[in-house]
Amino acid sequence: MDRPQNPRRNPVPQEPERHLPALSTPGAPLSSPTDDSARPLPGPLSHIPEEAVWLASQKSERTRRAYRTDVQAFMETLGIRSTQELRSCTHREVILWERHMRETEGLENSTVRRRLAALSSLFRHLIRHSYMEKNPATDISRPSVNRSEGSTPAFSREEARKLLDAPDPETLVGLRDRALLSVGFQAGLRRSEIAHLSVEDFYTDRGYASLRILRKGGKKGSLAIHQNCAQRIQDYLDASGHGLDPDAPLFLPTRHNRHAKEPSRHLDPDTIDRIVKRYVKQTGTGKGGTRYSAHSMRATFITTALDNGSPLEDVQRAAGHADPSTTKLYDRRGYSPEKSASFFANY
Fold it and tell me: Is 288:210 a contact under the CB 8 Å cutoff?
């Protein structure tokens, strides 16, 4: 892959380069800020670069990981190797990177926008703390995305039913997967929210089986769940025997999993994606290159709940969305493939 040439030539040659292992290698020693004397901090805090402080300030572990990857991609593409070079960037470097992502890497518009947003967030932080004067990513034109409809494919009701019944109820893995898929289809949780659930998060509130949920951004919520979903969870806990340990993960890794000997370890969110895709393949769901994922369960939940008459504000609350427009992005009721004009083009 060709890298765009960095338009800067020895931006500040009078000072040595200072590497940023904190953005690329978690746990590595952290380099010093460009000007420690301007910001005296007690003890070892003075040796933490402001870029690492920005990264640590993100509440979600997944956000921190994504932002680290995004900023690292910018630095590697432009050959930036130090805090000093990073802080001396102009709009030229950001424009080159944006074009490189679109034209050379062929990334989706949504990915390009997310990466630019991460970089802009870092620059805003550096400006706020007087390490930079201007945000070079502010006026960069970003590729458009569809704001009226999301891109996550949803399952039909028949496909959802087939997937819910696909796991074998006679095996422990099957019972776990039946419960896990039910939480996705009948509670609409994100894969990270499903993975984070503990046994104590499954409880009764005012006579209704409910789930305590750690939402995106560290927010906490709760949701009364469908009785069929609650029964599947209870069946799994009864069979697995870990239902009496409130601190245990609700969904345990299988004995063939490399983390199975770590009883306190939660499933990785990527594992939930693989579980969904396994049953999609097993049941022959979808055609061609349809890219179903765990998020497809969430889109299906929102569409089905709205279609069956649940008010938008209730679905928004269940989905944990701050803005109803976000909930509408998942609503597939306006798309009726069975009414496609293509079916009437008979020759």
Answer: no
Distance of CA 138 to the CA centre of its chain: 24
Query: Reading across the β-sheet that carries 202-205, which strands appear in turn?
Result: 202-205, 208-214, 220-224
Task: Work out whether strand 202-205 and strand 208-214 pair parallel, antiparallel, or are unpaired.
Answer: antiparallel
Q: Are 225 and 211 in contact (CB under 8 A)?
A: yes
Distance from C-alpha of 61 to C-alpha of 55, rounded to nearest angstrom? 10
User: What are the tens digits of pLDDT across the range 105-142?
Assistant: 998 888 899 999 999 999 999 999 999 999 999 988 88
Q: What is the CA angle 329-331-318, rounded to 5?
A: 90
| Token pair recorded at residue 223 | 């949701």
Q: Name the β-bridge partners of 226.
A: none
Question: Residue 59's Cα: distance from chain center in Å?
Answer: 13
Are 2 and 104 within 8 A, CB to CB? yes
Query: Token pair of 252, please?
Result: 């345990």
Q: What is the dihedral of CA 141, 142, 143, 145, to 10 degrees?
A: -130
Tally of CB atoms within 10 A around 170? 8
| Burial of 91 from C-beta contacts in 10 A (0-12 / 13-18 / 19+) | middle
What does the block give as tokens for 176?
A: 């776990």
DSSP code at position 133: S
Q: Mapping DSSP to helix (H, G, I), strand (E, B) and coil, where does residue 202 land?
A: strand
Closest to 160 measured CA to CA, from 46, 306, 292: 292
Q: In the beta sheet, which residues pair with residue 204?
A: 209
Verdict on whether the full-model pTM lies above 0.70? no
CA distance 251 to 173: 10
